[in-house]
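tool=predict chain=A
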Amino acid sequence: MGRRLLFTGFNAFGQHNASNTERTSGRVNALTEISLSDDSDGRIILALSWRYTAYAVGKKLWLQGLLADKPEETLEVQATEEITALAACDAHCLVLLQNGQLYKLRAELNATLQAVKLEAPPAKRNIFGQAKEAEEISITHIACGSHINVAISAGNAVYSIPSCLHRFSQGSWRVRQLECGHEHALLLNGNGDVYSWGNGLRGQLGHDSLGVEERPLLLEPLAGIKITHIAAGGWHSAAISAFGDLYVWGWNCNGQLGMRVMKPDGLLKEPTVYPLPQLQDLPACCAAVEAEADLCAPVKAYAGSRHTLIQRRCGRLWASGWCAHGQLGQQPPKSAYLDSFNAMQQLPKDCDYTVVCGPWSTLIALSE
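tool=predict ok
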């Protein structure tokens, strides 16, 4: 199976091998096929920071971009086991191995993988109050942002690395997805419930009051609605339900929620912060008749610092938000932002794809 990658957005540090990068702005304005410095076969794992790209194949990991004092610098390291997940922020990259061990790689030349030592969760006790033997910590999910680093263990312990924040009960409860914005985290479990924690001063947590939540808190406005996919942007969030409904909340300074920034008169501003989830209607897509509208229902959401992408069942991508760096694939950008969802360039047909959003960029991995 061939590997194809399409990129659009900020590329001033040569973190992507895009030949049509504008010299003055360092941006790519349209989805452009790029190549990686490694051409080996195998499943590719991707993560994006604003100044570098992290990617892994098998046991090998590369960072490419601004790592010291000039663009297009590259760091290559070898892990002891196959790499299953990456999470990138400005300072470092979190690396999860197949055996559940977690490592950190600083975004610097000559950096090496450093094992992350996690605080053991409170010991379980039997019915007589006796402490059970401490279990080995095996990590299953990771995510990080500018000011937050999160990991989830197989025992449902939630870590604000390296400290243990909370432990969910086991049994039928399991983590399905974990996402981080710059300062907040979202967790989706197998029952379709969403939890959020971190800094919520811009409404990104989805609760009825703006503030900081130290531990995962159930998102009550979505309770009873089975959520199937979530996304955490810089200071905004999105969720998609099993019924194909899109919910958005948080900061809308650049239309990243797909909502108008200015009122129709162009003089007065709409609200900038939406602290509670808002049901968002997407524009008509490619369905021929209304009866087939569910063929274009949203199925996945992705988010960068101030932009949001929605993948629809028909395969098309729609985008809204900040596009000053070309992260929405606009050629040329009509303005600094789009405050409604617009269809992106048509992707090749008969291809499955996954999307990774960096703060100011969008990367699409195609599999034919």
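The two ends are 7 Å apart (CA to CA). The chain has no helices and 28 strands.
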